[in-house]
Amino acid sequence: MSETFDLILKNGTVHTPGGAESVDVGVRGGKIAAIGSGLGDAGEVIDCTGLDVLPGCIDSQVHFREPGLEYKEDLESGSRAAVLGGITAVFEMPNTNPNTDSAERVREKLDRAHHRMWCDHAFYVGATADNAEALKELERIPGTAGVKIFMGASTGSLLVDDDAALSRVLASGTRRVAIHAEDEARMNARKDLRVEGDPSSHPVWRDDESAMIATQRIIGLARKARRRIHILHVTTPAELEYIARNKDIATCEVTPQHLTLAAEDAYPRLGSYAQMNPPIRSAAHRDGLWHWLAQGVPDVLGSDHAPHTIEEKAKPYPNSPSGMPGVQTLVPLLLNHVAEGRLSLRRFIELTSSGPQRVFGLVGKGRIALGYDADFTVVDLKKRWTVGSDWLASRCNWSPFEGMELTGKAVGTIIRGHRVMWEDALANEAVGEPVRFEATEFA
Predict the structure, then answer these.
(1) Which of 121-135, 156-170, 259-273 has the lowest mean pLDDT?
(2) pLDDT at residue 154 above 70?
(3) Which cofactors (predicted)?
(4) 373-431 pLDDT, tens per residue?
(5) Rounded to an integer, what distance in angstroms lies between the CA atom of residue 124 and that of residue 148?
(6) Rg (Cα) of the chain, in Å, rounded?
(7) Distance, CA of 351 to CA of 328 (rounded, Å)
């Protein structure tokens, strides 16, 4: 007697832990229930002929601006952009208004997100000098991705920049701590290097050394505290070389924009739309990131999706805010790099699925295997297309990659067996649920 399933994905190239296979995938109760051929009947069958079925892609750094800054983005619009781009889960950052720095504010975000966000989700708790001792409890709230430290000032008011306060934060808790590593003291001393009206001076002000000093400081403090850390949006080859010597305690992230854009072209062409923290740097920096990516040093990709309105970005530098949208373009940008031979599809899967699972201790996500959540990013590796404004869903309504011709696109986003997006069309309702972590499930 043949089995019955809620959903079967048929005729695709399925990327399991064993590699690419021409098999079907059966889904029951939101979980992967069978992988093979001739699986039987299903309530829904999706024909994936000519398509690749990847584990659901996870973006572990987004800023969706809710509460307090919803005119830039909110949890619904940001997550809608995510699933249109092939993302099945996101980790959202705490620099909202008010900051996400207490149990009450974490739970408020979780309540706001429930079945209003299109993708699964987790929320970071922002570290402050005032809540340091409470973090060991806050990081255990189900639905939290852990603790985030801003060592250098960026959008919002979260900042922990002195060694004493950093040590207190690192001493409170056990989960891996996410770090924005730029040295506040050095950047304050270099503010006069900003040139009014010239965003190309942004990486001169927030220079390589600002990043390297902070990375070295936090790794040293983490060693003393015996605390694992995760360094976000690394922009310099020197940092990656240093992190490579400290992988026992430090994991790290790179972003699609730092792998794609270069200062020599980006600032003349995009102006303040290329402005972010840490900055877009030179082509030599970009090529250096690719070198260390090939060496296996970065663990994950994150978009650092950080939208601002067109009116805000149009202000003359340095009054223009730092940040750019990116959650919707993460998958296609990297698939384009795959098409160009710079990145293997296996490494892409590692950076967007199995890497986040390993680094953050996710439960049931990150691979196509029996018993795991039925999360799939279905892609057409050969599709040639142009990023257009009509495709973009972020409330800010712009992208530094608008007009870019790409090869490769997500044609389907399936989350716990729900077909949330297919060929740019959304489902009738959002089904986002909190991501589960080993640290909170089994605490």
Answers:
(1) 156-170
(2) no
(3) Zn(2+)
(4) 999 999 999 999 999 999 999 999 999 999 999 999 999 999 999 999 999 999 999 99
(5) 6
(6) 21
(7) 16
Q: Cβ of 70: how many Cβ atoms within 10 Å?
A: 16
User: Domain 54-360 - what CATH class?
Assistant: alpha beta
Answer yes or no: is pLDDT of 372 > 60. Answer: yes
- Where on the phi/psi map is residue 417: left (φ > 0), alpha (ψ -120 to 50), or beta? left
Please write the tens of the pLDDT for every residue from 87-105. Answer: 999 999 999 999 999 999 9
Site of tokens 């102006």 = 271
Residues 402, 400: Cα–Cα separation, whole Å: 6
**Residues written for the chain:** 443
Measure the CA–CA gap between 80 and 78, rounded to whole angstroms. Answer: 5
Q: Which two tokens stand for residue 419?
A: 């077909």
DSSP states along 216-271 = HHHHHHHHHHT--EEE-S---HHHHHHHHTTTTTEEEEE-HHHHH--HHHHHHHHG
Question: CB-based burial of residue 389 (10 Å sphere; 0-12 exposed, 13-18 middle, 19+ buried)?
Answer: exposed
Verdict on whether the full-model pTM lies above 0.85: yes
CA–chain centroid gap for 314, Å, is 26
> Domain boundaries in the chain?
54-360
d(CA 376, CA 192): 48
C-alpha 336/C-alpha 183 separation (Å) is 33
- Cβ atoms of 296 and 173 within 8 Å: the answer is no
**Is 373 an active-site residue?**
no
Amino acid symbol at 366: G
